[in-house]
Write a structure and sequence with these properties.
Low-confidence stretches: none
Structural class: mainly alpha
Radius of gyration: 26 Å
Keywords: Membrane, Transmembrane, Transmembrane helix
Largest sheet: 3 strands, antiparallel
Order of helices and strands: HEEHE
Mean pLDDT: 86
Number of strands: 3
Helix content: 40-55%
Strand order of the largest sheet: 2-1-3
Number of helices: 2
Shape: rod-shaped
């Protein structure tokens, strides 16, 4: 009888510990998400690009798989389809303090987006 009680107590302790672990994990996830939002750090980075003639606009969203190479391919297609010369791709987003300034996107010259986005 004593052995059965000890087994049940161990099971009860395991359930309590697992429940406590689950609660602590969810609390941690919630508080870090709140701190992330309060810090002003973007959850998803969106980088805007524009051609020097303002005829082309595109975006890069790395977290969603929309990468710089796709923007560059679309820009090359834009130049080809319109028989353009002397048109350059520019970045229309300024870096924020969390951006990796070593990334190739920052090699593009900054240019303001047109007013009629």
């Amino acid at each position: 009888m004593k052995n059965m009680f000890a087994k049940n107590t161990h099971v009860l302790y395991m359930i309590i510990l697992l429940s406590l672990g689950f609660i602590l994990y969810n609390y941690y996830e919630y508080t870090t998400a709140e701190l992330h939002l309060k810090s002003g750090k973007p959850i998803i980075n969106v980088y805007h690009y524009v051609s020097s003639d303002y005829g082309f606009q595109d975006i890069e969203v790395p977290q969603k798989g929309r990468i710089l190479e796709q923007v560059e391919e679309n820009f090359t297609e834009y130049i080809s389809n319109n028989n353009l010369t002397n048109v350059e791709l520019k970045i229309a987003t300024k870096p924020n303090r969390w951006d990796d300034l070593e990334h190739r996107r920052w090699e593009y010259e900054y240019m303001e987006m047109p007013d009629n986005k």
